[in-house]
């Protein structure tokens, strides 16, 4: 009787031991599954955070751009009423040796503040003649656009590059493939329109590609504008103001 009871107790101990091992294995499996789910959940968490940040940047960019646009509109309409090349010419003459500095600052801020940049192109020709006015326009126009580009990118970043809109993603893909060519085309079509600086600043284009495309794209239109400057002055009515 005793041997059988001993064997029975031994079997029970082994059974409980096996049950304990099985429980430990189940716990280990559960822990591994939990760790796997956690590791798979990290990228998802990062995607959610990145998506929220992109939307916040987009909202901040819109607010910042709206503020800049309002300031530019106010300055163009209220702060500097009836701005024209003749008045800019007279202001440069009165400034004396500081006239060139006044011209550079005004032209540089024109794109950012939505002032008509062509006013400064014409004023440069009126002040320093066709050749020097043309050379100044070739230098100052890309610099003015670049200042607007850098300010807008500092405020809004590259939010259009992270957009979820399919049509915008297609446009950005084309821009990434041909950045300089796209910028040149936009300049040939829209010339010195400030909105081009804003859109490109919020895209994925680099500053180097933007500057090269802007300088190349503006060279032709600026040359034509300076070549026909006399007719442009007469067409815009600036010759009447000068008289």
Question: Could you outline the blueprint of secondary structure elements for this entry?
Answer:
Layout: H1 2-79, H2 85-95, H3 99-110, H4 117-156, H5 166-177, H6 179-190, H7 194-201, H8 207-227, H9 229-236, H10 238-242
Walk me through the structure.
With 243 residues, the chain is mostly helical. Helix content is 85%, strand content 0%. It contains 10 helices and no strands. Helix 4 runs parallel beside helix 7 (194-201) and helix 5 crosses helix 6. It starts with a helix and ends with a helix.
N-to-C terminal Cα separation, in Å?
133 Å
Query: What series of H and E elements makes up the topology?
Result: HHHHHHHHHH
Residues in helix, %: over 70%
Strand % is: under 5%
Secondary structure tally: strands: 0
Radius of gyration: 33 Å
Largest sheet, strands/sense/barrel: none
Structural class from helices and strands?
Answer: mainly alpha
User: What is the residue-averaged pLDDT?
Assistant: 77
The shape, in one word, is elongated
Low-pLDDT segments, ≥5 res: none
Compute the number of helices: 10
Concise synopsis of the structure shown:
The chain has 243 residues and is mainly alpha-helical.
Index terms:
243 residues, mainly alpha, 10 helices, 85% helix, 0% strand
């Amino acid at each position: 009787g005793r041997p059988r009871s001993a064997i029975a107790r031994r079997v029970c101990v082994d059974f409980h031991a096996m049950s304990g091992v099985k429980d430990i294995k189940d716990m280990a499996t559960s822990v591994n599954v939990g760790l796997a789910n956690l590791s798979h959940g990290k990228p998802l968490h990062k995607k959610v955070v990145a998506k929220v940040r992109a939307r916040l940047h987009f909202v901040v960019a819109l607010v910042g751009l709206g503020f800049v646009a309002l300031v530019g509109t106010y300055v163009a309409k209220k702060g500097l009423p009836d701005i024209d090349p003749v008045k800019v010419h007279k202001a440069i003459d009165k400034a004396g040796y500081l006239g060139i500095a006044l011209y550079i600052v005004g032209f540089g801020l024109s794109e950012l503040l939505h002032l008509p940049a062509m006013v400064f192109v014409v004023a440069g020709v009126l002040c320093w003649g066709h050749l020097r006015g043309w050379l100044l326009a070739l230098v100052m126009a890309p610099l003015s656009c670049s200042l607007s580009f850098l300010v807008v990118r500092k405020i809004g970043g590259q939010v259009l590059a992270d957009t979820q809109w399919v049509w915008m993603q297609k446009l950005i893909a084309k821009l990434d493939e041909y950045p300089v060519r796209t910028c040149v085309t936009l300049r040939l079509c829209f010339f010195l329109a400030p909105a081009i600086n804003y859109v490109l600043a919020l895209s994925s284009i680099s500053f180097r590609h933007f500057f090269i495309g802007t300088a190349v794209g503006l060279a032709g239109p600026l040359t034509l504008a300076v070549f026909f400057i006399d007719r442009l002055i007469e067409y815009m009515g600036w010759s009447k103001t000068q008289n």
